[in-house]
Design goal:
Number of strands: 8
C-alpha cells in the first residue's frame, strides 16, 4: 500500500511539473508573438481590407484600377503641383468694413480724415508702381515673376498657347471675368512687392510669397490698388507707432499725428481701450470744418430717454473691430479699423479717390449732408403715428359723448 501511494504521489508531481512547463512555454511564445512587429499592409491590401472590391460592378468605381496601381496618386500629385503654381480667387473677408451702420461714423470723420488717408493710399500705390515701371523690362525681374503673363497662360492652358505671341495677348479672358491686359499690366507684380518691402523697410519674418497670394483676392497674379493697400495695412501693422526715417511710404505720420491722438483723447480712463460710449462722447468734440453736414449727432429723436439715434454707428464699429476683447477696441484695433473703413470707401481696383466718389453718401443723406434720410423717415413715421393716436383719442372721446347723450 505504501508503494502504491508513493507511485501516485510521484505521478501527480509529474503532472503538476508538466503543466507548469507548458504554461511557461505558452507565455514565452505569446511574448515572442507580441514582440513581433505588426505586418504593414500595402496600399492595395488597405483598399481590400476596407472594401469588397470583388463585388464592385463595372462603372461603380472607374478609377479602381488606377487606385490599386498607384496611378491615381501620381496624377493627383501632378494636379496639386500645378495648382500650387497658379493663383486662385478667394473671398475678401474685409469687404464690409466702413459699410452698414459704420458708414455714418465715417461720414462724420470724412471732414477730418478722408483726404489725408486717401492721399496716403494714393502715394503708396504710385510709389510702388513707379518702382515697377523702372524695373519691368529687366530680364532678371521678369524671370522672378511666378505669375508673369506667359506663366499664367502656359499654366492655365497646360502649354496649349504661347503667351508671348500677340495673338494670345488677351487669352486670359477665358479665365478671368472682364480681364483687361492693359489694366492688368498696371497692377503690381510679385518682384515689385518683394523689392519695395526691402527698400521701404517693410521687412517681416512672414513668407512674402504666401502673403502676396493671400491678398491677391481675384487670383490674377497681381495686386491691384484695393489689394495692395489692404496688403500694406496688415503687412505694416506691427510697425504702427514706431518711428521711421522714411514717412513717405509708411503710415507713421498719419497715425502719430491724427489717428493715435484721436484714440488717446477718447480713452478718458487711460486703460488703452475705448468703448462705444467713450467713442460717442469723444467724437462729439471733434473739430470739423462744417458741423452741420454729415454729422453723427444730427439725428435726435425723443424715444424714451434717448435723444440721439446714431449711437448704432459707433456700436457697429466697435463690434466689427473688437477682436481681442468684447465691446472695446485697443489702440491697434482702432488704427486698423479706421484705415480699413477708409480703404473700403476710397479705394477701388483701378482708382483711389480722395473725395466722395465711392462713399455712396447720397443713399444716406439729403441736402448735401444736412438731413439723415433714415432719420427723416423715422420722424415722419413718428409724426404720423402721433396724428393717428390723437385722432383715435378724439374719436373715442366723441363716441363716449354720443353714448352719454343717448343714455340721458
Amino acid at each position: 500500500m505504501k508503494i502504491f501511494y508513493k507511485i501516485l504521489t510521484t505521478f501527480c508531481l509529474f503532472l503538476i511539473t508538466y503543466s507548469i512547463r507548458q504554461s511557461i512555454q505558452k507565455d514565452g511564445n505569446n511574448k515572442k508573438n507580441n514582440n513581433k512587429k505588426p505586418v504593414k499592409l500595402n496600399f492595395e491590401d488597405k483598399i481590400k481590407a476596407l472594401f469588397n472590391i470583388d463585388d464592385v460592378e463595372e462603372g461603380e468605381c472607374n478609377q479602381l484600377d488606377q487606385i490599386l496601381n498607384g496611378e491615381f496618386d501620381k496624377k493627383k500629385t501632378k494636379e496639386d503641383l500645378n495648382a500650387g503654381n497658379l493663383p486662385r480667387p478667394k473671398e475678401n473677408i474685409w469687404k464690409d468694413y466702413g459699410k452698414g451702420d459704420s458708414a455714418y461714423l465715417f461720414d462724420h470723420l470724412d471732414d477730418v480724415l478722408q483726404n489725408l488717408v486717401a492721399t496716403k493710399f494714393d502715394t503708396l500705390y504710385k510709389g510702388a508702381f513707379e518702382k515697377q515701371e523702372k524695373t519691368k523690362t529687366t530680364p532678371e525681374t521678369t524671370s522672378q515673376d511666378p505669375y508673369s503673363y506667359k506663366n499664367l497662360v502656359n499654366g492655365f492652358f497646360q502649354g496649349k498657347y504661347d503667351g508671348s505671341l500677340e495673338e494670345n495677348k488677351n487669352r486670359l479672358n477665358e479665365i478671368y471675368k472682364d480681364f483687361s491686359r492693359e489694366k492688368w499690366e498696371g497692377y503690381l507684380n510679385f518682384p515689385t512687392i518683394k523689392e519695395i518691402v526691402n527698400e521701404w523697410r517693410w521687412d517681416s519674418k512672414l513668407d512674402l510669397k504666401k502673403v502676396f497670394d493671400q491678398y491677391d483676392y481675384n487670383g490674377d497674379g497681381r495686386l491691384d490698388r484695393q489689394e495692395f493697400i489692404l496688403f500694406s495695412i496688415f503687412y505694416n501693422k506691427d510697425n504702427f507707432g514706431k518711428k521711421t526715417n522714411d514717412l513717405k511710404y509708411s503710415y507713421e505720420d498719419l497715425i502719430s499725428d491724427f489717428i493715435d491722438p484721436m484714440f488717446l483723447f477718447m480713452d478718458c480712463d487711460k486703460n488703452n481701450e475705448v468703448n462705444a460710449e467713450e467713442m460717442w462722447k469723444g467724437l462729439k468734440k471733434l473739430k470739423r470744418k462744417n458741423n452741420n453736414t454729415y454729422s453723427l449727432y444730427s439725428c435726435k429723436l425723443m424715444l424714451d430717454m434717448e435723444k440721439e439715434y446714431r449711437t448704432n454707428a459707433v456700436n457697429d464699429f466697435i463690434l466689427l473691430n473688437s477682436k481681442k476683447k468684447d465691446a472695446v477696441v485697443d489702440k491697434e484695433e482702432f488704427r486698423i479699423g479706421i484705415l480699413l473703413g477708409f480703404w473700403n470707401r476710397q479705394v477701388k481696383p483701378d482708382k483711389i479717390s480722395t473725395n466722395d466718389e465711392f462713399t455712396q453718401k447720397g443713399e444716406r443723406w439729403t441736402s448735401e449732408g444736412i438731413n439723415d434720410k433714415f432719420c427723416l423717415s423715422i420722424k415722419f413715421f413718428m409724426k404720423e403715428s402721433t396724428k393717428l393716436r390723437k385722432k383715435v383719442k378724439e374719436d373715442m372721446t366723441k363716441n363716449k359723448k354720443t353714448e352719454n347723450k343717448k343714455v340721458n
